[in-house]
Design brief:
heterodimer, A: alpha+beta, FAD/NAD(P)-binding domain, Guanine Nucleotide Dissociation Inhibitor, domain 2, Guanine Nucleotide Dissociation Inhibitor, domain 1, eleven-stranded mixed β-sheet, eight-stranded mixed β-sheet, 21 strands, 30% helix, 19% strand, B: alpha/beta, Rossmann fold, six-stranded mixed β-sheet, 34% helix, disordered N terminus, disordered C terminus, binds guanosine-5'-triphosphate, binds magnesium ion, cell membrane (chain B)
C-alpha cells in the first residue's frame, strides 16, 4: 500500500485503527455523510480484536507489541492447511439482550453475519467438590420462603419468562395452559417477575419430591441438567433448579430464592431490592451468597461461572455479579431457534467479523480504508501520515492505548497535552487451542424444542480445581470458550478452545490453561475407545485491557488561537477484557458520534441508496 | 454433528463464498449482473467499495449450490479492502479484459496474492471478458486465448473467455466453479455445513419480538 497516494488531502474525519470501536465509528460517521479516512498501520483489519490464520498467528507472535505480551505458538500435530483457519483474538459472546444486537437489529445489519448459538455453561466439579459446604451462614435475611418460592416457580414455569417455550413435563398438567403459554411467550421476559407471585388458581401443586423423582426418571432425555464426565451443566433456570439431581431440597429452595432475588434486582422500580443491592454493592459474591443463601460451594462456583467474570467469587463484587447474571437470565429462553441458549457468537472470528463488516461498510458508503499506514504527527488539523503525505481533518479519532497506532505520542506538544493520566489496566492470560476432535458432546441440543444445536459452549474451572506441576492451584477461575467447526474457525473434524484467566503467566496462568484443556480432552473428547484427542496447535498470550468507567477521553484541542487550530482529537478507549462483548461499546461510540454530528439519532442508519439495495437483496 | 452427513441425504445443498477481483472496468459487476439477473448495462458505474449478491444454481437434480457473491471494486483506492473479501472465500473469479493486455498483468498479480494469502483450497477461475468485442472485430484482441490458457493451466486455474454483454460462457464459468468445489469434504473455511451448522435466525427472532412489542 505504500506506493498509493490518497485521492484527497481534505477529510472530515480521520479514524486511526480498525478495531471494533474505530470501525463502528468509521462506518457510522461515513453513513452520516462524513468523508472518512480510516487508517491502520497494521496490514490487517481488526487490530486487537482481529482473527488470524495459523500462519498469521505465528507471524504475529514474533514481534509482540502492547497490549500483547508473552506470545508463544506451538505446532504439535500436523496441519495441512494453516491458512484455512480463522482463530479469534476476541471470540466474544453476544448476549441476546445486548445493546450490540439491539443496534444491529435496528439498522438491519444482523444478516451481515452468521450467528451461532452458545449452548450450555459447564463447570468442572470433581466429586469431592460436590460435598463441600461453606460454614453455615446466617441465612434467611432476605429470603422469605425459599422452598415455597421455587415450588411456585416450577409450577408456573410454563407461563413464560426464563423458561418460556420449553418442553413441558407430563406431571405439570400442561395442556390446559398451552394456549396461555403460547400467548405469553412473546411478552418481554420481565414478565417472569409476576409469575413469582403465588401460583394462580389453576396452577397444579407439585411437591419437591415429585420434581426430583421426575428429574431422575427423565434424566436421559437430555432436558434436565446434563453431566459430561466431571463437567456439570450449570443450573440457570427455575426448571433446572427444580430438576437438578445434584441439588438437595433445601438447596433448591435457596437457589430458587436467589434466582428470584435476581429477578427483583432486574426491576429498577423495585426499591427494596435496589436498596439491598446498594447496601451490599461492595460485598463479595460468595460472602453474600453464603450469608443469605447458604448454598454448597460448588453452586456458588457454578453460579459465578454465568457471570463470566475473571475474579474469583470471593473477590467479585456483588453488584458486578448481579449485573452479569441479570444479563444472562434475561437473555436465556428468548432465542426462538434455541430456547436453551442465552448468547450468540459471530462465526468466522467473533468480533473480528464486526471489524471487517464495519470497515468495509465505511468504503461502501464513500469512505476510504488504507492499511499499512499510520499517523506520525498531528498539529492542529494537519496530519502527517507514515508515508509522508500530509492531510487535514476536522476530527481525528485515535485509540487511547494502542502503541501500534500511537505514533503520535512522540511528536508535537499539542498532542502530548491531550494525554491524561492513564487509567488502570488489567491483564489476562489467554490461549487458543486447536483440537483434533469436534468435541461433539459439547455441541448437542439440550432441549427437544431447540431447532438447531449450539456451536459454542462455556466451560469453567473453579478456584482450586486445577494444579500445576509445581503444586500451585488456581486462585481464579479459568474459562474455556469452545467453538465447533460451524463457526468457520477450524476444520470439520476439529474444534477450537479459547481460554482466559486473570492468573498471570508467572503465577502459572499458561499451565492452568493447558491443564484445563487436557481435562476437557480427556473427559469430553475421548471416543470411548480410549483415544484422547490432541492439541494440534496452541497460541498463548497475555493481553492488557482498560478498566474503569466508559467515558471516552474527549480532548478538544482548543487553544487561544482558535482560528488556527481547528483540529479535534478524540481518544477512543479500547474494549474491556470481558468474555462477552463489552456492553459499553455501542453507547460510548454513540457519544463520540454525538459530539461530532450533534445527535445520537440516526447512528449507523442506512443511507437511502443502501436501503434500496438492501431491499433488492432481501427480495432475492 | 448429530445430523446425517450431507452426502447420505438425497438432496445436497452447499453454500459458497465467491469473490470477484480484477482491474477496474474489466466487467466484474457486469458478469455478476448477467449471472444473477441475466441483464446487461452499457453504462455501468464503477463499483464503490463492494457489492453483495447471491445466486443459487442447480448442479444436477440433487445438488443445489448457493453462491454468496462479493463483487469488489477494482479501483486502486479500494485495494485495502480486498483481503476482507478473499478471507474465507471458497472461490474467486479473477477477471481481465481481453482487449486490454495490462489487465491480464493485474489479474496475474491477484492470482499470486490469492495463492499466497487465501485459503489453500480456494478454487480460482480466470475470466477473459468482453469476448463480444473481438468477435465483432478481431483486431481489438490484445490477449491471445492460447497465451491466457497456458498461464491458467500452469497456475492451476479454471479458464473461460466470457461476454457479459452476450452472456456467452457466463453460466458455464460459474457452473464449472461449482463443480470443482468440494461438496462433501469441506475443510477449514469450506462449504458451510448443512442443517447441523445453520446459524441462528435473527430475523425470525426480530419479527417475533416486534410483534411482542407492538401490542
Ligand atoms: N462490450 C462489452 N462491454 C462490457 C462487457 N462487460 C462489461 N462491459 C462494459 O465495461 C464497462 C465496465 O464494466 P463494469 O462491470 O462496471 O466493470 P467492473 O470490473 O465492475 O469495474 P469496477 O467496478 O470499477 O471495478 C461498462 O461500461 C460495461 O458496460 C462485455 O462483456 N462486453
Ligand atoms: Mg464493478
Amino acid at each position: 500500500m505504500d506506493d498509493y497516494t490518497l485521492p484527497s488531502t481534505i477529510w472530515d474525519i480521520i479514524v486511526l485503527g480498525t478495531g471494533v470501536k474505530p470501525s463502528l465509528l468509521s462506518v457510522a460517521l461515513s453513513r452520516a455523510g462524513k468523508k472518512v479516512l480510516q487508517l491502520d498501520p497494521r496490514e490487517y483489519y481488526g487490530a486487537t480484536e482481529t482473527a488470524f490464520s495459523i500462519d498469521e498467528l505465528e507471524q504475529w507472535a514474533k514481534s509482540p507489541l502492547p497490549p500483547f505480551s508473552h506470545i508463544g505458538t506451538e505446532r504439535i500435530g500436523e496441519i495441512t492447511r494453516p491458512r484455512g483457519y480463522t482463530l479469534a483474538l476476541a471470540p466474544h459472546l453476544v448476549y441476546w439482550g445486548s445493546s450490540l444486537l439491539e443496534l444491529l437489529r435496528e439498522v438491519k445489519m444482523t444478516s451481515s453475519f452468521t450467528w451461532q448459538a452458545v449452548g450450555s455453561w459447564w463447570v468442572y466439579l470433581p466429586e469431592p467438590a460436590m460435598e463441600e459446604r461453606p460454614a453455615t451462614g446466617i441465612g434467611g435475611l432476605l429470603l422469605d420462603a425459599g422452598v415455597k418460592a421455587v415450588k411456585a416457580a416450577a409450577a408456573v414455569k410454563k407461563k413464560g419468562g426464563w423458561n418460556k417455550g420449553r418442553k413441558k413435563r407430563k406431571d405439570v398438567d400442561v395442556d390446559t395452559e398451552a394456549s396461555a403459554a403460547a400467548s405469553e411467550a412473546s411478552k418481554p421476559t420481565t414478565e417472569a417477575t409476576e409469575t413469582q407471585s403465588p401460583a394462580g388458581p389453576e396452577a397444579p401443586e407439585v411437591t419437591l419430591s415429585d420434581l426430583t423423582a421426575e428429574a431422575t426418571s427423565t434424566a436421559p432425555s437430555g432436558s434436565t441438567l446434563r453431566k459430561l464426565g466431571t463437567f456439570r451443566e450449570v443450573p440457570c433456570t427455575f426448571e433446572d433448579v427444580a430438576f437438578s439431581p445434584d441439588l438437595q431440597d433445601r438447596d433448591r429452595g435457596y437457589l430458587g430464592g436467589f434466582l428470584r432475588f435476581l429477578m427483583k434486582c432486574a426491576d429498577p422500580t423495585d426499591v427494596k431490592h435496589q436498596e439491598i443491592l446498594q447496601k451490599n454493592s461492595e460485598t463479595s459474591f460468595s460472602e453474600f451468597l453464603s450469608s443469605e443463601y447458604p448454598l454448597p460451594t460448588w453452586t456458588i462456583a457454578s453460579l459465578h461461572s454465568l457471570t463470566l467474570l475473571q475474579t474469583p467469587p470471593a473477590e467479585t463484587k456483588l453488584k458486578d455479579a448481579v449485573q452479569a447474571l441479570i444479563t444472562h437470565l434475561t437473555s436465556i429462553g428468548s432465542i426462538p431457534d434455541i430456547r436453551s441458549s442465552a448468547a450468540l457468537t459471530i462465526a468466522y472470528g467473533g468480533s473480528a467479523e464486526l471489524t471487517q463488516v464495519w470497515s468495509r461498510g465505511t468504503a461502501v458508503s464513500g469512505g476510504l480504508n488504507v492499511l499499512g499506514r499510520g499517523i506520525t504527527k498531528i498539529v492542529g488539523d494537519t496530519v502527517t501520515l507514515s508515508n509522508g503525505e500530509v492531510v487535514t481533518a476536522d476530527w481525528i479519532l485515535v485509540p487511547e492505548e494502542d502503541p501500534e497506532t500511537h505514533e503520535t505520542s512522540e511528536t508535537e506538544s499539542t498532542t502530548e497535552a491531550t494525554t491524561k493520566a492513564t487509567n488502570s489496566t488489567v491483564s489476562y492470560t489467554k490461549s487458543i487451542h486447536l483440537i483434533s476432535s469436534p468435541l461433539n458432546p459439547l455441541f448437542t441440543r439440550k432441549l427437544e424444542t431447540d431447532r438447531i444445536p449450539p456451536n459454542a459452549a462455556v466451560l469453567t474451572f473453579p478456584v482450586g480445581s486445577l494444579c500445576t506441576s509445581a503444586g500451585l492451584t488456581n486462585t481464579a477461575p479459568v474459562y474455556i470458550i469452545a467453538h465447533s467447526s460451524a463457526t468457520g474457525e477450524c476444520g470439520k473434524d476439529e474444534s477450537v478452545l479459547y481460554t482466559s484467566t486473570q492468573i498471570l503467566k508467572d503465577d502459572g496462568g499458561y499451565e492452568f490453561a493447558s491443564a484445563a484443556v487436557r481435562r476437557v480432552l480427556e473427559e469430553i473428547g475421548s471416543d470411548g475407545n480410549g483415544t484422547t484427542p490432541e492439541v494440534k496447535f496452541v497460541c498463548r498470550y497475555t493481553q492488557k485491557f482498560p478498566v474503569g468507567d466508559d467515558e471516552e477521553e474527549m480532548v478538544a484541542q482548543e487553544t487561544e488561537e482558535e482560528e488556527e487550530v481547528k483540529g479535534r482529537i478524540v481518544k477512543i478507549k479500547g474494549m474491556k477484557g470481558g468474555l462477552a462483548f463489552d456492553e459499553g461499546t455501542v453507547e460510548s461510540c454513540k457519544r463520540v458520534y454525538e459530539r461530532i454530528i450533534g445527535t445520537k439519532e440516526g447512528f449507523l442508519r442506512m443511507t437511502e441508496q443502501m436501503r434500496r439495495q438492501y431491499e433488492e437483496i432481501e427480495d432475492q | 454433528m448429530s445430523h446425517p452427513r450431507a452426502s447420505t441425504q438425497s438432496q445436497r445443498f452447499a453454500q459458497f463464498k465467491l469473490v470477484l477481483l480484477g482491474e477496474s472496468a474489466v466487467g466484474k459487476s457486469s458478469l455478476v449482473l448477467r449471472f444473477v439477473k441475466d441483464q446487461f448495462d452499457d453504462y455501468r458505474e464503477s463499483t464503490i467499495g463492494a457489492a453483495f449478491l447471491t445466486q443459487t444454481i442447480a448442479l444436477d437434480e440433487t445438488t443445489t449450490v448457493k453462491f454468496e457473491i462479493w463483487d469488489t471494486a477494482g479501483q486502486e483506492r479500494y485495494k485495502s479492502l480486498a483481503p476482507m473479501y478473499y478471507r474465507n472465500a471458497n472461490c474467486a473469479v479473477v477477471v481481465y479484459d481481453i482487449t486490454q493486455s495490462s489487465s491480464l498483468d493485474k489479474a496475474k498479480a491477484w492470482v499470486k496474492e490469492l495463492q499466497r494469502q487465501a485459503n489453500e483450497n480456494i478454487v480460482i477461475a480466470l475470466a477473459g471478458n468482453k469476448l463480444d468485442i473481438v468477435t465483432g472485430d478481431p483486431s481489438k484482441r490484445a490477449v491471445e486465448t492460447v497465451e491466457a490458457e497456458a498461464y491458467a493451466k500452469e497456475a492451476g486455474l479454471l479458464f473461460f473467455e466470457t461476454s457479459a454483454k452476450t452472456a456467452q460462457n457466463v453460466k458455464d464459468l460459474f457452473t464449472a466453479i461449482a463443480k470443482k468445489l468440494p461438496l462433501d469434504q469441506p475443510g477449514p473455511r469450506g462449504a458451510r455445513p448443512g442443517a447441523g451448522g445453520r446459524g441462528v435466525d435473527l430475523k425470525g427472532g426480530m419479527a417475533a419480538q416486534q410483534q411482542g412489542c407492538n401490542c
